[in-house]
Amino acid sequence: MSSYYSPITYLVPPQEDGWLLKTILQKRMDVSRKLLSRLKMTEQGIMLNGERVYISVRVSSGDRVEIRMEQETSEDILPQDIPFDILYEDEHLLVVNKAAGIIVHPTHGHYTDTLANGVMHYWAAKGEQYRFRPVHRLDQETSGVLVIAKNPYSHQHISEQMIAGTVDKRYAAFVHGVPALPAGDIDGPIDRDPAEPHRRIVTPDGYPSLTRYEVKEVFPGRAARVELKLESGRTHQIRVHMSSIGCPLIGDGMYRHRLYGRGPVEAELAAPAAKTELEAELLPPAEGVLTPEEAAQLARIAELDAAIPRQALHAVRLSFKHPVGLAELIFEAPLPPDMALLQQKLRQEQL
């Protein structure tokens, strides 16, 4: 006999008297076609006043409509005792503050030591059974707010909000340099780099991608703290977009500052030979070498990159409507210690 989660209930108001049950399920309870098909196949999936019925019946004012989903689990995920920070939990959702350095879900060649392994252990220890359903992802080295749905209904609802653009996702980041404008949009299509498929690039043939940014703090001559809002969800989107405007994330080993590609050289080798000081000023630097100013800048960039062991990116805020009841939920996660230390370093250097 199947085991079910607690029912999601809807009471029919007077103005919906005589409606088809199918209409109630789709228009009022927002059950997707896919989930509706699954519910119809289970014994207690769709109930009207405690009885199993066809969705073609008509309802009356005051009727109690219930949907029940069968309990599931992720049998292919090994439970492991991995601690994680819980921001919120109820029977429909689990919201966590993901630490940097941990992968969200097992991948090829990396089946253990992920957030999913830790969550499955946590649920098992409580005697609960759910399938691991992250509604969105964060890069391994990105920290912050992450939502996990406990059933297909919750996953569907929040996913639809994300597609509709009503989920507010905000990130805090520290970047090299300062954007030209205090706030703006980075509208650049993103796709794989043909030369390195694990990387992403801004390219005219890519997928539409939009990132909004606002400079929150400037550290003169060196860096800035920015808040970013995603209007699309491409892989590495923030990292690629900030790099594309000349402000790569501090600590990002994949999308590094363009000066790294030039390579460090001795200052006296940075410019071609010239007979006079005037000629030296007019001649461009030789290809593949740095001017003294660029060499000094690269040294400062490398110093900041060494101050944090990963890209300085944190999912600081996430808001959306709860899938059951539609209450507005807002979750925030403060800067993790490594980013707080980086911020302190940058502020102290201004004194």
TrEMBL record:
Listed SUPFAM superfamilies: Pseudouridine synthase
Keyword terms of this UniProt record: Isomerase, RNA-binding
A Pfam family hit: PseudoU_synth_2
EC number: 5.4.99.-
Enzyme class: isomerase
Reaction catalyzed: a uridine in RNA = a pseudouridine in RNA
Entries under CDD domains matching the protein: PseudoU_synth_RluA_like
Family membership: Belongs to the pseudouridine synthase RluA family.
Protein name listed in UniProt: Pseudouridine synthase
Annotated gene: rluD_3
